[in-house]
């Protein structure tokens, strides 16, 4: 009976985790049965058992319960621990012999189905990173090694790496593509040390065609992991195998990373992902909205809502996506069209948290600098074009970059009426579409203020 329950649990896991993750992590497990309220599994390696235990045991437990078997704990044993060769014995055949064909059995981290090139929106801030990632995924002669992608949180590093992996596998199903985070790299390495199995660790990592290590800043300060990473890296470069690395900073700026590694990382192509700009955010929102719309065909989003979100949530694409997901779920639940008001209400907390720290004073100062006029001119009653236009730009920026009300903005710009502010905002909006100079000024100032 319990074996049938395990069958049902497996079916659900396959659905929920996706075929790849299922194949990598769940399929290799052998269900040994229920012992009281403990579900026992045998995993082919300690690493795999630990991984599943850390990442999926809650899920497995819940699913067992759902199918009527009370499970209080999930336990994994592994062959590797028992079979770890004693130090004085001749090396025996490694327990987990590295397979030589196909990449399905490479124990990398699961890849997210949504993180493909198709779903990646390209804009100025990420076009170089995107082009480099494309080049790598096409295979062919290795022109830069490694490709080092860096940038702040949520700018698409992981997305691009997964996209490379998907694309490389599609082009060449036999390619051995291994993607994992630096943390997982370390974890595997430590496990290998513990079970005296560094041989198969080395063999595994040296046998791949394309190695991708995400968030490499993680190994800063972790000396033996760095060492191993360095050797792996060199071995692959020597064999002309492509490596892709990501980090939240440039190689030279990662404290606690050995100098030789820093310099090695800079041998290839170092590309940064810049903070998103308004257009890119809007593009990403539209792409993600299409994906949401497939789940919630009934939901209607009013004009201007996307633009509003792209304006107001500028720090992190992940937060932007979260906001969108919430909007769709909310609209579908309450059956209302998502207007600007609804969005503001439904996302109040997110909007508050991502409220820019840009102040009106700062805007006035930057605008004055930019147009080479004095701050007091902006605040003065003067109406000469050379002063009036910058003042309008300032008001426009204050309206779009801060959450200050129109009367408040008017007050801060030399005690003007809120209708003056409305007029200024409209004027700049119009001018931006017909006057390149104004459009550039606004964009430049926005960028400086948001930086
Ligand atoms: P990072 O690894 O740089 O912290 P991620 O790759 O995890 O960021 O991206 C965070 C989220 O934002 C993901 O859901 C990703 O799909 C999305 N995202 C980031 N940049 C883009 C882009 N240019 N196009 C589409 N989605 C993006
Ligand atoms: Mg990432």
Word description of this protein:
With 451 residues, this protein is of the alpha/beta class. It folds into four domains: 2-88, GMP Synthetase, Chain A, domain 3 (2-Layer Sandwich), CATH 3.30.300; 117-272, P-loop containing nucleotide triphosphate hydrolases (Rossmann fold), CATH 3.40.50.300; 278-354, Orthogonal Bundle (Helicase, Ruva Protein, domain 3), CATH 1.10.8.60; 360-450, Chromosomal Replication Initiator Protein Dnaa, Chain: A, CATH 1.10.1750. Helices cover 56% and strands 9% of the residues. It is built from 21 helices and eight strands. It has helices at 2-17, 19-26, 46-66, 79-83, 127-137, 157-171, 182-194, 198-206, 223-238, 259-265, 278-295, 305-312, 317-334, 340-346, 348-353, 360-371, 375-379, 385-401, 406-412, 418-434, 436-450, and strands at 30-35, 38-43, 73-78, 147-150, 177-181, 210-214, 242-247, 269-272. The strands form two sheets. A five-stranded parallel sheet has the order 5-6-7-4-8, sandwiched between helices. A three-stranded mixed sheet has the order 1-2-3. A hairpin with a 2-residue loop joins β1 (30-35) and β2. The longest helix is centred in the first third of the chain and has 21 residues, at 46-66. It starts with a helix and ends with a helix. Mean pLDDT is 87; it is low at 80-103. Adenosine-5'-diphosphate is lined by residues 115, 119-121, 126, 151, 153-159, 284, 287, 317-318, 321.
């Amino acid at each position: 009976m319990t074996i049938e329950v395990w069958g049902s649990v497996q079916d659900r896991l396959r659905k929920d985790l996706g075929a790849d993750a299922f194949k990598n992590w769940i399929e290799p497990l052998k269900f040994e049965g229920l012992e009281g309220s403990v579900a026992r599994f045998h995993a082919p390696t300690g690493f795999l058992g630990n991984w599943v235990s850390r990442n999926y045991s809650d899920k497995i437990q819940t699913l067992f319960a759902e199918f009527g078997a009370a499970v209080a704990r999930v336990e994994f044993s592994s062959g590797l621990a028992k079979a770890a060769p004693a130090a004085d014995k001749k090396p025996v055949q490694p327990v987990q012999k590295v397979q030589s064909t196909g990449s399905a059995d490479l124990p990398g981290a699961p890849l997210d189905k949504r993180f493909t090139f198709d779903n990646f929106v390209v804009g100025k801030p990420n076009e170089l990173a995107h082009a480099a990632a494309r080049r790598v995924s096409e295979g062919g002669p290795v022109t830069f090694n490694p490709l080092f992608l860096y940038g702040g949180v949520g700018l698409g590093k992981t997305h691009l790496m997964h996209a490379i992996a998907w694309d490389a596998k599609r082009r060449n199903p036999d390619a051995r593509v291994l993607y994992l985070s630096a943390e997982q790299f370390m974890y595997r390495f430590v496990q290998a040390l513990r079970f005296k199995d560094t041989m198969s660790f080395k063999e595994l990592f040296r046998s791949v065609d394309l190695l991708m290590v995400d968030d490499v800043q993680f190994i800063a300060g972790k000396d033996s992991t760095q060492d191993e990473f360095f050797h792996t890296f060199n071995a692959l470069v020597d064999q002309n195998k492509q490596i892709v690395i990501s980090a939240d900073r440039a190689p030279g700026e990662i404290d606690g990373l050995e100098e030789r590694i820093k310099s090695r990382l800079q041998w290839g192509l170092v590309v940064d992902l810049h903070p998103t700009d308004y257009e890119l955010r809007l593009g990403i929102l539209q792409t993600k909205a299409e994906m949401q719309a497939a789940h919630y065909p009934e939901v209607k989003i009013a004009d201007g809502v996307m633009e509003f979100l792209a304006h107001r949530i500028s720090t992190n694409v992940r937060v932007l996506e979260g906001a969108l997901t919430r909007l769709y779920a909310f609209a579908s639940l309450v059956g209302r069209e998502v207007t600007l008001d609804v969005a503001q209400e439904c996302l109040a907390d997110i909007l508050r948290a991502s409220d820019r720290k840009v102040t009106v004073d700062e805007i006035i100062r930057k605008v004055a600098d930019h147009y080479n006029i004095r701050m007091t001119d902006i605040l003065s009653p003067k109406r000469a074009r050379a002063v009036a236009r910058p003042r309008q730009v300032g008001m426009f920026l204050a309206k779009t970059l801060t959450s200050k009300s129109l009367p408040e903005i008017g007050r801060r710009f030399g005690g003007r009426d809120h209708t003056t502010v409305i007029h200024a905002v409209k004027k700049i909006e119009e001018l931006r579409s017909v006057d390149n100079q104004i459009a550039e000024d606004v964009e430049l100032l926005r960028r400086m203020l948001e930086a």
